[in-house]
Write a structure and sequence with these properties.
Number of helices: 7
Order of helices and strands: HHEHHHEEHH
Strand content: 5-15%
Radius of gyration: 18 Å
Number of strands: 3
Distance between the termini: 69 Å
Structural class: mainly alpha
């Protein structure tokens, strides 16, 4: 039995579910689309939950303050990177609908994130003495992504809220 086959067959089902979800989210961004802001919230909320689930899974193995520090610093760094624009911000179409331009970058980033996290998990399995350190790196990657996707989501949310509030006043 080859090592690749052992790795693939011993990978938990939820890992493949995460892979498919990231693939679908990335492929959706390959073409221009209009979407309700609630659908656009799936990525930031999903990455936020994934980062918290990663921290929770490590809670028994590491000091809680270490987890909070790594998560917080990485989340803040991701949120701070929201000012760096590599794709145009979505355009407010009306109500809670936004138009997103086509881009390959989210798909590439989601796949890079998945395979980095997957590779760190495999490495930790083969070298248990490194598992906690590799877990912190994975936690940092997840929290960084959660912060970045939140930073990308907040401006359209604020715009939709302001538009909704303005309509109610009129």
């Amino acid at each position: 039995m080859s090592i690749v086959r052992v790795i693939v067959t011993h990978t938990p089902i939820y890992v493949w579910v995460v892979f498919v979800l990231l693939l679908v989210m990335g492929v959706r961004r390959l073409s221009p689309r209009r979407t309700h802001l609630a659908m656009a919230a799936l990525a930031p909320v999903g990455f936020f939950v994934w980062s918290l689930a990663t921290a929770a899974s490590m809670f028994l193995h590491l000091n809680a303050w270490t987890l909070v520090a790594f998560w917080g610093i990485a989340f803040a760094a991701g949120a701070g990177s929201g000012r760096i624009r590599t794709v145009p911000r979505p355009t407010h179409v009306g109500d809670w609908i936004f138009a997103y331009s086509a881009t390959w970058q989210p798909l590439a980033f989601y796949m890079l994130l998945f395979f980095a996290r997957y590779g760190l998990g495999i490495w930790g399995g083969f070298v248990p003495s490194m598992a906690n350190t590799l877990g912190l790196v994975g936690l940092s990657l997840s929290a960084l992504t959660a912060g970045r996707t939140m930073a990308d989501f907040i401006p359209p949310l604020a715009q939709a809220l302001a538009s909704s509030k303005a309509r109610k006043v009129c």
